[in-house]
Amino acid sequence: MNYEAHGSRDVFTVCDPENGELVGEVKRSNPVDIDSCLNRARILFSGKQPAAHHRSDLLHRASLLVREKSGELAGIIASEGIKTIREARSEVSRCAETLKLGAEEAKRIDGGLIPLDQVPSGEGKIGFYEQRPAGIVVGITPFNDPLNLVAHKVAPAIATGCPVIIKPHPQTPFSAIALHRIFEEAGMDGPLFQLVHGGAEAAQALVSDPRPRIVSFTGGKAGGAAVARASGIKHLSLELGGVGVVAVAADADVGKAALAIHSGAFWAAGQNCVHAQRIIADTGIYDELRSRLLSLARAMSLGPKKCEGTDMGPCVSEGSAQRLARACGMAASFGAAIGCGGTHEGTRFQPTWLLNVHPENPVLRDELFGPVSTLERAEGFDEILRRAAGAGDAIHSALFSNSLEWSMAFWRAAPAAAVMINDSTDFRIDAMPFGGIGSAGLGREGLRDAVAGMTEKRMMIIAAAT
């Protein structure tokens, strides 16, 4: 869907990617709206900061309200986005947990003493610091987790006392609107959390303005690069994704590995920055793993998103499905076999496994961001390690093995911010540090790390009066 084409200059429409039905209309934020949001946030930040217990209580009340309204919120996520109703319920539960973690972190922001007598000039002096809110936060969020990824920017901002302005993806604005209303119901005082709606032009206006101090972006690499170019001197958090590599060693529990990889490959129809995309299997277990993965994929139900029995939803747009079909065709032209799937009807792409993928096949280089994963054969762990080490930067990599030696070697070699042992790349809890290395991202989310990124140390040094 071309979002900009589905609306006027003042309003854009949101349509269900599954069937094209109208979900609703949203007023597009114009330059005056954006300037007003930034001014309100600046005035709020320049005033008296709310106490930690007030910020914590607000987040706690919002968390409880998210749980109370879980059915309504899951319905919104499943209507405007790409998730099944079961996936949407899981996201709502995680959102409530994210806000609860923010409430806890609001009370943990502290300071510390600095030993100054490390040098002669510091003798007799006392130095200490506190963590203060850094300033206005701009958060730009994607379509694939339209509620919880908003919470991952709002919760740490409110925990620290930073006003936050969110620009949600134009495909999924109603989840963010619902969360904003929950904060109002929870007693939010003033413009602590505001929304701006639109496309790239709205994001550009926000991040290039000198008033924000922090920009937190989750999305693709091209978008992240544009944000970085436009932001200027600001704290940047960029979660950009990459190719998730999962290695399966000869000693792995193949049944457990297959179930975890299947979930990692097709959760949210593979539209996930920690999607299990590139699977490297030892030749000794390759055939069994292939058989299990194909059986699991072929058994998936692709019914309506809101049907309880549906296992996988649609791609975000027909253009995305067409892009995936081209990728499968290119992979096949370089010798890969399509084990299952490879085709689509509208936005509904079949769960797809590309088999016997040669390590030089171009399909392995880029994040596919859809329900397409690849399986390749490797001769022994040294070959697995070599291929994994040569993969591109990523957020997560994974290894299935019972060997501590192999696990440690993989952890040291994999170009990823985190390595999962005996689980898939899509494992995450909302408290853990989360982000990519190198071209996969900058900075970390996860509540404690995000709070640290939204605060600045302010020091005082006291010299003895006599």
Helix and strand topology:
Blueprint: E1 11-15, E2 22-27, H1 31-46, H2 52-68, H3 70-80, H4 85-106, E3 111-114, E4 125-133, E5 136-140, H5 148-160, E6 164-167, H6 173-185, E7 193-195, H7 200-208, E8 212-218, H8 221-231, E9 235-239, E10 244-248, H9 254-266, E11 276-282, H10 283-298, H11 318-333, E12 337-340, E13 344-345, E14 348-349, E15 352-355, E16 372-378, H12 381-389, E17 394-400, H13 404-413, E18 416-421, E19 441-442, H14 447-453, E20 455-463
Parallel strand pairs: 5-6, 5-8, 6-7, 8-9, 10-11, 10-17, 11-16, 15-16, 17-18
Antiparallel strand pairs: 1-2, 3-4, 4-20, 9-19, 12-15, 13-14
Helix pairs in contact: 2-4, 2-5, 2-6, 3-4, 3-6, 4-5, 5-14, 7-8, 9-10, 12-13
Q: Could you please describe the fold and organization of this structure?
A:
The chain is of the alpha/beta class and 466 residues long. The longest helix has 22 residues, at 85-106. The protein has a 7-stranded mixed beta sheet, with helices on both faces. It has a 6-stranded mixed beta sheet with strand order 7-6-5-8-9-19, with helices on both faces. Strands 3-4-20 form a 3-stranded antiparallel beta sheet. The chain folds into 2 domains: 3-240 and 439-461, Aldehyde Dehydrogenase, Chain A, domain 1, CATH 3.40.605; 244-429, 3-Layer(aba) Sandwich (Aldehyde Dehydrogenase, Chain A, domain 2). Helices cover 39% and strands 22% of the residues.
